[in-house]
Amino acid sequence: MASNTEFGSKIGLIAATVGSAVGLGNIWRFPAETQTNGGAAFLLLYVLCLLILGVPVMLAEFSLGRAGRSDAVGAFRALSPGKPWYLAGAMSVLTSYLILCFYIVVAGWTLEYLWESISGGLFAGIEHGVTPLAEVRSLFAARMDEYICTPWRPLLFTFGMIAINAGILVCGVQKGIENLSNVLMPLLFVILVVLCFITLSLPDASEGVKYFLNPDFSKITPRTVISALGQAFFSLSLGMGILITYAAYYPADTRLGRTSVTVSLLSLLVAVLMGLIIFPAVKSFGLDNEPLEGATLVFVTLPEVFANLPYPALWSALFFLLLLVAALTSTISIAEVSVAMLRDRLNMRRSTAVIAVTVPLMLFSAVCSLSFSVPDTLQLFGQTVFNFLDTVTTNVFIPLVSIAVCVYIGWFAPKGLLRRQLSNDGRLHSPFYPVVLFVIRYVAPVLIALVMIFNYL
Ligand code: PFF
What we know:
Blueprint: H1 10-21, H2 24-36, H3 40-68, H4 72-79, H5 86-119, H6 133-149, H7 152-170, H8 173-200, H9 205-213, H10 222-235, H11 242-247, H12 256-284, H13 294-307, H14 312-346, H15 350-370, E1 379-380, E2 383-384, H16 385-412, H17 417-422, H18 433-456
Antiparallel strand pairs: 1-2
Helix pairs in contact: 1-8, 1-12, 1-14, 2-10, 2-12, 2-13, 3-4, 3-10, 3-12, 3-16, 3-18, 4-5, 5-7, 5-14, 5-15, 5-16, 6-13, 7-8, 7-14, 7-15, 8-12, 8-14, 9-12, 10-18, 13-14, 14-15, 16-18
This protein binds 4-fluoro-L-phenylalanine.
């Protein structure tokens, strides 16, 4: 059964799609990747990957979703009945669910840190300008152990996030997802600009800006290219079935080309603003020799920066609210992939579908969360369950789904589908159609496959 739900307004559908794209990928993965891969040179490659590959692949997913007018599995079924392409859709649903299981745990941490910033727990025992810096760092490291690596505390907050997610999803596409995104996305940009303003006015901030924006091309290696492509795909939410699912809710007159460019540029803008927050801040306080590795950056290094500022709890609360907003608008989009699939395939009511997604999620996310407190027991292939899911989805599932979507739209979908979707059935001029088709047919599948292979070497 095709779903007959739609987003109610242009702004709403952009807010929801940008909300999905802007997530922890932009906010903590991007600065970490930029630092590991040599600063501005990485930024440049990331922009190229985003525009040359990311936008066309996004258009492939949009076209599939809006033409199929159904969930990720149903879209393939509707367009190519009786063919096994729906298995690619099923793989995207599986990918999205596996990602949700560990990502919701991180979302839970952001809720926990927001709570601890507001209630004063995070900065307890630290006196601004008095406590020695080395002591501040070890205090935050110990807090991270306590907040993330103990069994019950993080679990409680993860379940809190799951409940919030379920509450929004039950309200539906317009009243839940769209209304929430309309409020939260502007809030996210306001917080980003405020934090940017604060960090750019710190002493020696310009050193950090230079590092971030002055490319050193000698730092580019095949690894850098692979990382930039991976980052571009993750940060646009490609290969997760999300864009197929959301595009099924796009009205017939939505301009897909314009939407994809807007979403990509806004996602890029968030990443750049984040770089302009992080690099000046760590440079200014001499913390730039510490690795900006994901969790440590967010839960140790940045609290150290905040502890050096007047009103640390205020900046910390704002920052974790930013993370929470980014994470929440992403988790609802990824959970909607499964909800839509259950509604459309099994004719479930929305509320029943949300419960069917939520209950197993509690179990699986608990395993991911507990894999930090009992890492020796909860292992898969020599890694914590959490890390295993992260690695396997990023390096195997997302690229496979993306290749399948490109090959399908480029070669096997009903004739003229992409052209009709890009031109809204001939009503719009679509000058970029030949380029987009060329990238979807030849460039994207080959490059993604090469990156997958290189990743194993
Ligand atoms: N673009 C999102 C991000 O950068 O975080 C990708 C994503 C991940 C979306 C996990 C949803 C999600 F649950």
